[in-house]
Design brief:
Length: about 500
């Protein structure tokens, strides 16, 4: 590879927001004088001419959907440009290192990826001998002697949309049996370079109940202090997190406001890992951009630990909070090591309602431990606590994913329910002990997919009632009557939301 060769970075899907996994490494590479092109394959085709002339192609895989799409893309890239160095980078690169390196990737980079990615390109340009072609490796730190691993490929936006409905997992072993260590070294931060990315209007918008507004995306931290067993962050960061400097975050928000953003999603795995850090950022952001709204994600236990945070967050522009409730079964919550109970969820809802900040719960509705009674109870809980309009219907279809590197694999009872590894699907298979639950999952998934295709998914209450009917039928009980719309409290009819429903 020559220093003036083109570098192509590809994103496949990042929950409908403008991909920071392109903007951040592009800034680092450009600061070193490299020529960088970026393509978001979730919304635009990957041009063949750019693929053919690139000396280095990196594909970002921060999540399962991106992993699935990225593998499809890599096959086309290999056909178009067999001589390019292909690198997968991001959270799922570490988890799937063994599979990637045995299926065309020459390097993978996990954890904090910007500096290792830049270092890798530098070594390739310096003609440092590399065994990547015959002995591909994964590199974790910028000081590693190995070459990070990856694969990529151009495709249309349609492929990304279909892949959003696929399942996921990972692998954290190297070819040759060594451990694929992610980079957990602190690095310097640059303001993400968003200049050549598609405009914000092409991404998820904020639906505030009155109008649709362009939404930006920023991160104040990476990684997470917590180690929930089912979370893909756990085997990569192992309870560590890194704070992004406030000046970098605020400069990134500033440039997105100039691009038209009226709302910012803070995509940290947990916004309150560093509550003092984020409060300083929010205060400065509100002062610089009055009227700019935001949302963020935090754990139930953090809501309970920091109740005074939320009224101020609301005053500073907060309009909703995402929290990984996952389940209201205490048994399931314990098996996932979520750190909260059903009663804690009720207390957290009260804290947020007092602060006039709606919670938008995320769920893992189907697990090996979730009974049919649990599923019915979850739906009752949603109705009783007036959360129907807070939850996108897709949440009722989410099924536990178990990557090869998952912390769940270390649990003593896992062998009693886990199935075979589906390498190409990036997940371990499993079946529920009660066949009714697997059938219910299939029926609810089909219902939600059809509602999405028809536009009916926007009517949360109607879809919710249909899901309750399916669950009641599976249990052999009578479904509750649909609640008349005029009985719904007016202030809870229009909950702010992003127009992209959550997918893994």
């Amino acid at each position: 590879m020559k220093r003036d060769d083109d570098i192509l970075l590809i994103s496949c899907y990042e929950l409908g927001h403008q991909p920071i996994s392109l903007a951040s490494p592009a800034a680092r590479l450009k600061s070193e004088g490299y020529k960088v092109s970026v393509v978001d394959a979730a919304i635009e085709p990957v041009p063949e001419d750019i693929v053919r002339r690139a000396g280095f192609i990196g594909i970002s895989v921060p999540m399962h959907t991106a992993m699935r799409v990225g593998m499809d893309l890599s096959r086309r890239i290999r056909n178009l440009n067999p001589g390019a160095h292909l690198c997968f980078y991001g959270l799922y690169a570490t988890l799937n290192a063994e599979y990637l390196l045995s299926h065309g990737a020459e390097s993978v980079i996990g954890g904090e990826f910007e500096q290792p990615l830049c270092d890798l390109v530098g070594r390739l340009c310096a003609d440092v001998p590399s065994a990547a072609a015959t002995n591909p490796v994964s590199c974790g730190s910028s000081a590693s002697a190995g070459v990070p691993a990856s694969a990529a490929d151009p495709a249309s936006a349609g492929g990304a949309a279909l892949a959003r409905r696929a399942a996921a997992t990972t692998n954290n072993a190297l070819a040759g049996g060594a451990s694929a260590a992610p980079n957990l070294s602190r690095q310097t931060w640059l303001v993400p370079d968003r200049d050549t990315l598609p405009g914000l209007k092409r991404y998820a918008q904020l639906d505030n109940g009155i109008e649709l507004l362009p939404a930006g995306y920023a991160e104040t931290t990476r990684g997470c202090l917590h180690t929930c067993l089912h979370c893909p962050i756990t085997p990569v960061y192992n309870g560590r997190f890194f704070a992004v400097p406030a000046d970098v975050v605020l400069a990134d928000v500033e440039q997105q406001v100039r691009m038209g953003a009226r709302h910012i999603t803070f995509g940290d795995p947990d916004f309150l890992n560093g509550p003092t850090h984020v409060l300083r950022i929010l205060r400065r952001m509100s002062e610089a951009h009055p009227g700019l709204t935001f949302d963020f994600t935090t754990k139930i236990e953090h809501i309970l630990q920091h109740p005074s945070f939320f009224p101020e967050a609301r005053d500073l522009g907060g309009i909703f909070v995402v929290s990984a409730v996952e389940s209201v079964s205490d048994l399931v919550l314990e098996r996932l090591r979520k750190g909260h109970t059903r009663d804690d969820v009720v207390r957290a809802l009260a804290i947020l309602r007092d602060a006039d900040l709606p919670m938008r719960p995320s769920l893992v509705a189907f697990t090996p431990w979730t009974t049919l009674d649990d599923y019915l109870d979850l739906l009752d809980f949603v109705e009783v606590h007036e959360l129907v309009d807070h939850i996108d219907p897709v949440q009722y279809t989410i099924r536990l994913l178990v990557p090869p590197g998952s912390a769940l694999l270390d649990e003593p009872d896992t062998r009693s329910w886990i199935g075979a590894l589906d390498e190409a699907g990036f997940t371990y298979t499993w079946r529920h002990g009660d066949a009714r639950m697997d059938r219910l999952h299939q029926r609810v998934s089909r219902l939600v997919e059809e509602a999405d295709a028809s536009g009916e998914e926007r009517d949360n209450r109607r879809v919710f009632h249909r899901i309750r009917c399916l669950a009641a039928e599976a249990a052999g009980v009578e479904a509750p009557a649909e609640r008349p719309f005029h009985d719904i409290p007016l202030k809870r009819r229009r909950i702010p939301r992003l127009t992209e429903a959550w997918f893994c």
